[in-house]
């Protein structure tokens, strides 16, 4: 049983089975006492974080993070983020807008706040609230250096707020535009990470469904070989819950696989196709169907055409890379390799240094100062209210309205 609730500063919350005395009622006979435990909160200051104390008032025992507190004893929950969201918009899409946010006590620790209006009209037949909840569930479980992870989340009647890591390197599309054709070694550096991230989510039975260079972030702009992070799970689906056929107008037309165009049954191999298109773009400097404009024209090109490399790429790029692009963009999805097969090959082994990397917001690694910070705008700070971090049980997010 999981119960999520918001906490306010300088309050006391009684948790137990008593209907009359409990602020948060959990009625489990022979396990939960009338008053099982008490949560007490205190105010924070600009120089210190607020505190949350848990007092064990039970006969059966209260556990915090699998450790027994002990009857009559109190313990403090560690880990807080006191977050301010600004009015500085750093990205926008068809469903959401993204704003700069930061830790009030450590302004150098910046985050991205994705704001979704969950009361708006349905998006291609799917409710905004349903899409928000599905994306949130996917983000909660992401713990991989090449996949965007959830820091915290909060929901009001009108909006859903998702707090995510903020990266400073732009996206893969900007990177490709800046260098036009990319050196094979650098392209392979990015693709190794892209493949590793896809292998991870596919292993969890998640299909991204909208993989494209604009949804792939880079950790730092000035690094020669930055870390790559797959983001935007707004169109993602779980294999078990996906529709029988591909929803019309779902995803980005230029990166849709043939089975998506034909609205047929689909699988995680739609992501493999998109990865092949991205690999081609990095090597050629242009999308394979760039000359076709409009959805209908694109669809007619995707179905019959075989992807061809230019003579320049044929001369400069290895046969192994060209073969991999061809395999990933096979028209018949049955002929495309699974990501676990791609990553397990000798030339595409997962980079151990990236897989070991952790993030500061989970308390597992001290952040190294990035080469660039976004300027904080002191005016026009939007406040939200306090809530618990649903993805990491040792972190309480404090946001004020």
TrEMBL record:
GO terms for molecular function: ATP binding; protein kinase activity. Residues 84-355 form the Protein kinase domain. It comes from the Eukaryota. Residues 13-69 form the FHA domain. Belongs to the protein kinase superfamily. CAMK Ser/Thr protein kinase family. CHEK2 subfamily. This is Protein kinase domain-containing protein. It comes from Mucor lusitanicus CBS 277.49.
């Amino acid at each position: 049983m999981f119960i999520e609730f918001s906490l306010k500063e300088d309050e006391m919350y009684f948790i137990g089975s008593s209907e009359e005395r409990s602020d948060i009622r959990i009625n489990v006979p022979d396990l939960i006492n009338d008053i099982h435990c008490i949560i007490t909160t205190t105010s924070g200051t600009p120089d210190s974080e607020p505190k949350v104390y848990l007092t064990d008032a039970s006969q059966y025992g209260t556990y915090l993070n699998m450790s027994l507190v002990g009857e009559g004893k109190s313990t403090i929950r560690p880990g807080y983020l006191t977050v301010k969201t600004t009015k500085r918009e750093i990205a926008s899409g068809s469903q959401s807008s993204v704003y700069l946010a930061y830790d009030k006590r450590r302004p150098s620790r910046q985050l991205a706040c994705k704001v979704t209006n969950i009361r708006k009209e349905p998006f291609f037949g799917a409710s905004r609230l349903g899409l928000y909840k599905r994306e949130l569930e996917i983000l909660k479980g992401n713990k991989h250096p090449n996949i965007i992870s959830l820091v915290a989340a909060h929901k009001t009647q009108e909006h859903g707020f998702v707090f995510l890591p903020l990266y400073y390197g732009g996206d893969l599309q900007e990177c490709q535009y800046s260098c036009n054709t990319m050196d094979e070694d650098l392209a392979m550096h990015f693709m190794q990470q892209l493949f590793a991230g896809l292998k991870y989510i596919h292993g969890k039975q998640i299909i991204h469904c909208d993989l494209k260079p604009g949804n792939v972030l880079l950790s730092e702009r000035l690094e020669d070989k930055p870390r790559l992070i797959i983001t935007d799970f707004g169109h993602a689906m779980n294999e078990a819950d996906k529709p029988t056929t591909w929803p019309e107008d779902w995803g980005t037309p230029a990166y849709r696989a043939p089975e998506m165009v034909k609205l047929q049954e689909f699988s995680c191999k739609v992501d493999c196709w998109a990865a092949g298109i991205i690999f081609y773009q990095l090597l050629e400097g242009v999308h394979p169907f760039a000359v076709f404009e409009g959805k209908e024209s694109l669809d007619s090109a995707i179905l019959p055409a075989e992807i061809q490399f230019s003579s320049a790429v044929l001369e400069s790029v290895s046969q192994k890379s060209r073969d991999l692009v061809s395999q990933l963009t096979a028209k018949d999805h049955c002929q495309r390799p699974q990501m676990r097969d791609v990553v397990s090959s000798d030339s595409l082994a997962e980079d151990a240094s990236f897989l070991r990397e952790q993030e500061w917001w989970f308390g597992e690694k001290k952040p190294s100062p990035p080469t660039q910070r976004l300027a904080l705008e002191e005016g026009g700070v939007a406040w939200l209210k306090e809530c618990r971090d649903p993805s990491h049980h040792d972190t309480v997010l404090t946001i004020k309205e």
